Amino acid sequence: MALALNREELSQYLTEVFPQVREDFAIDNLTEDTITMRLLTAERHLRPGGTISGPSMFALADVCVYAMVLARLGRQALAVTTSCSMDFMRKPEGNTQMIAQCRLLKLGRSLAVGDILMFSEGSDKPVARASMTYSIPPQGSAAAQFG
Description:
There is one protein chain. The chain is of the alpha+beta class. It is built from 3 helices and 8 strands. The strands form 2 sheets. Strands 1-2-6-7-8-5 form a 6-stranded antiparallel beta sheet. It has a two-stranded antiparallel ribbon with strand order 3-4. The longest helix has 20 residues. The protein is globular. The two termini are about 25 Å apart.
């Protein structure tokens, strides 16, 4: 399935419907099946001890799958997370950006499933892995059309 939104269109749409994303996340790369995003790490993302917090890593994983669904389906802002499983494997570096590589495993009519690996920038060892499922509003419904 081809992309409905390219990287620039996706970034612009996210800014329109989810403006808080602009301050914390950036899209590095987008293909038909993958997206690479980064957490623009700031003091607010750190926990005591100077590492990136779990909630910040969850947010990065969540935004990745959301963005991937939008990239494939287009302007359907009301897709929502229905399930998440997350494994924390290593201590993330607090003084670097967090990079997430998301692969869309399934995109159906009502559900999308994504797998996300997260790394401290400059390292090839994953610090966390997440699996997320998103619910997609029915085509043609008022909820599916936003913006």
